[in-house]
Every structure is written in structure tokens, then in C-alpha cells.
Design goal:
mainly alpha, hpI Integrase, Chain A, three-stranded antiparallel β-sheet
């Protein structure tokens, strides 16, 4: 028989939004052919509970529907015979395989992750095309070619070890997806090793720098000043702050809930509000901001419904450092976190409390971080005798 694509009956995926009722669970519904039952079978996929607004749910559903329908159009079925997988494995070239891996990795990824994946994907595909192997099967691409790509990054493009490692990690992830899908049996990049990377030193502000910047911000950039307080007191990441909404702040209970769709690691966490932080939040009149508004919106960092881009905050902060003659590439927006931690530790806050506020998974991680800031750990015995 000729080797041709089989086509099966199906009903395209669609969003069931429960008539717009956000209290009910929305889901995506579709029908695909069940090879074992020899008839159409209904399937529904619930929208994750972390998506609270209609806009968020529709955005998630749109990606899921696009991917699902593309698979249905290609002949995806339930209980497919293994022979179909074998056929796909035999006919798929490296570009098509990596396109599949890219789609699977980005279907529910954060915007920042999608941007990184897309950049590496496009660059590697361009390299494959330049070397006329994009149309070859993965098993026919020689190992030397993969080494050539990473040699080019080091020798010709002179990328940093950090960039090298990041690209290697992303590409290995793509190939691991293909292993799980039984497209390939082993990762062709397995023998390529990461390069040694010396982490940049964490640099806090001196007291003089801190005072000068704060005075300038209070006079010329009050919104940016308030933004830095979330870093200084809450040890929050800038990207997390751009996702925070007024409803996440509970002044009465004295904490901020960092929901999974806000947190970098995708886990729900809590940040304590100390006295200094509470005064700032009261000054911002946080309780008067609508609960569904971003605390720092896209319109000049004022509260609003449109999310602020993190890069705008970074650019504003760099501009201030340049104006004050403090920009050196070492002190950054993150220096507010480093400064807050140093001052908290010097004020007598114990390492366990700092671990909780920093949301570190272990005391060892906090210990290493404090040492990177030049803090001497466990000196309580220095003035003791026995």
C-alpha cells in the first residue's frame, strides 16, 4: 500500500465558557476518532483554575484550541495503532520535529519563556538551513554538526558561558520532548557539556548611594520609588511585581499573596509586610485601588488593567543611575533586594525568617546568598567564652 496520510472524522475544538460565568469551570471541548471503538469520542480539557479573568481564560483556550485543531487536522486519534507512530518517526525531518517540540513547550508557557524558546529555536533552525540539513531525519544529522553550532557560538559569536548554557539547556529540552513522544530514542546533545559559569557578584547599595537614589526617585519618579519598595521590603522579583494586583495585598493580615501565575516558580507563596512596608502601602492608598487592577500598570506605572512591561522599569532605573553618575553595570534594580536583605540581617532578622521572606527552598540557599553579600554567618560565639 502507498505510504499516505490517513484522515479521520473529528469535530474541531471549541471553548465552552459557561455563558461567561467565571464562577464555573470553563473548558475546551472536541471530538476525535477512537481507533479502538471505531467512532467519535468526546474529550474536554478544563481551563486551569489559576486563570481568574475571562481574558486570561480565553487567551489560554486560544492556544490550546489552535494546537488541538492542528493535531486533529494531521490525523490525531485516540488509541492510535503503534504503527502510526512508527510512520511519523520515519518521515519527520529535524525541522518538523523541532517545530513540534517548540509548540508543545510553548502552548502554556509564560511570555518570557516563549520569547527565549523562540529565539533559540529560530537561530538553530537557521543554522540547520545554512548547513542544508533542515530536511534530513534527526538520525541522519551527524553529531559533528551539533558541535559545530556550539563552537560557532563560542568562537565566532563570542557569547558568554551563561548564554551558551542557556541555549544548550533549551535545545536539550526540545529533544527531550521528542524522546517522550517516541520520535527519537536518545538526545543528540547528551555529550555536549555545559561551560563553567561564574555567577555575578550580588552588589548592594552603599548608604550614600541608597540615599541619593531614594531622594531623586521621591522627587522625580515617585512611582518607581514605590516599585523599588516592593523589592527592598518584600524581596519580590521585578517581573513578579509587574503581575501583582491590588487584591493580592492584605494589609489587615499583613501579607501579600504571590499566586502561581505571579510567582516565578509557579507556586503560591506569601510575603510578609513589615512596619516600613506597611507605611509605604498606606501612602500608596493600596486599599483604594480596585482589586483587579495591576498595582503598577502600563500607563506611567499607575494602577490599571494593563500590565506593565518589566523592561520599562529596568530602563527607567538605568536612566536614573546614569543621571546620578552611578551606572556601572554592577549595581542594578536587583540591588534593592540585596540592600534590603543586608539591612534586615544587620538589624537582627534571623536567617530562618529571611529564608521565608526570600522564599528560598533551604537555609543553605539563604546562607550562600548572605555570604555572596559579604555577610558573616553564625558569629554569635565571637564574644563568648567557656
Amino acid at each position: 500500500m502507498p505510504d499516505e496520510q490517513l484522515h479521520f472524522d473529528y469535530k474541531p475544538a471549541r471553548l465552552v465558557d459557561r455563558n461567561g460565568d467565571l464562577k464555573k469551570r470553563w473548558y475546551v471541548e472536541f471530538y476525535a476518532w477512537d481507533a479502538k471503538l471505531d467512532k467519535l469520542k468526546r474529550k474536554w480539557v478544563y481551563i486551569p483554575a489559576k486563570y481568574k479573568t475571562a481574558k486570561e481564560r480565553k487567551a489560554y483556550a486560544k492556544k490550546l484550541i489552535q494546537y488541538t485543531n492542528s493535531q486533529l487536522e494531521k490525523g490525531a486519534v485516540f488509541n492510535a495503532p503503534k504503527i502510526r507512530k512508527k510512520s511519523n518517526k520515519q518521515t519527520q525531518n529535524i525541522q518538523e520535529a523541532l517545530e513540534l517540540a517548540f509548540k508543545l513547550k510553548t502552548v502554556n508557557a509564560r511570555a518570557e519563556s516563549v520569547k527565549s524558546y523562540k529565539s533559540v529555536f529560530k537561530d538553530f533552525i537557521a543554522f540547520l538551513k545554512d548547513n542544508e540539513v533542515a530536511g534530513k531525519k534527526i538520525e541522519d544529522v551527524p553529531l559533528k554538526l551539533y558541535y559545530d553550532y556550539f563552537d560557532e557560538l563560542i568562537i565566532d559569536r563570542e557569547v558568554s558561558n551563561s548564554t551558551f548554557n542557556n541555549r544548550l539547556t533549551i535545545l536539550k529540552t526540545f529533544f527531550n520532548v521528542l524522546i517522550s513522544r517516541e520520535v527519537i530514542e536518545k538526545n543528540p546533545l547528551a555529550s555536549i557539556k555545559r561551560r563553567k559559569h561564574k555567577p555575578s557578584k550580588n552588589q548592594a547599595f552603599s548608604e550614600e548611594q541608597k540615599t541619593a537614589i531614594e531622594e531623586h526617585l521621591l522627587q522625580h519618579e515617585p512611582s518607581l520609588y514605590f516599585f523599588t519598595r516592593f523589592i527592598y521590603y518584600g524581596f519580590l522579583r521585578p517581573t513578579e511585581i509587574t503581575r501583582l494586583k491590588a487584591g493580592h495585598v492584605n494589609l489587615k493580615e499583613g501579607h501579600i499573596i504571590v499566586y502561581p501565575d505571579v510567582s516565578k516558580n509557579g507556586k503560591q507563596e506569601t510575603v510578609a509586610i513589615n512596619k516600613g512596608f506597611q507605611k509605604i502601602l498606606e501612602q500608596m492608598k493600596i486599599d483604594e485601588i480596585p482589586a483587579d487592577y495591576y498595582i503598577f500598570g502600563a500607563n506611567n506605572m499607575q494602577p490599571g488593567k494593563t500590565q506593565l512591561r518589566r523592561v520599562r522599569v529596568t530602563d527607567k532605573h538605568i536612566a536614573v543611575l546614569r543621571k546620578l553618575g552611578l551606572f556601572d553595570g554592577v549595581i542594578t534594580l536587583y540591588s534593592w533586594k540585596h540592600t534590603g536583605v543586608v539591612n534586615a540581617y544587620r538589624a537582627g532578622i534571623d536567617i530562618k525568617t529571611l529564608q521565608t521572606q526570600l522564599r528560598h527552598h533551604s537555609l543553605e540557599m539563604t546562607d550562600i546568598y548572605l555570604r555572596s553579600l559579604g555577610m558573616v554567618i553564625n558569629n554569635s560565639l565571637s564574644n563568648q567564652d567557656w
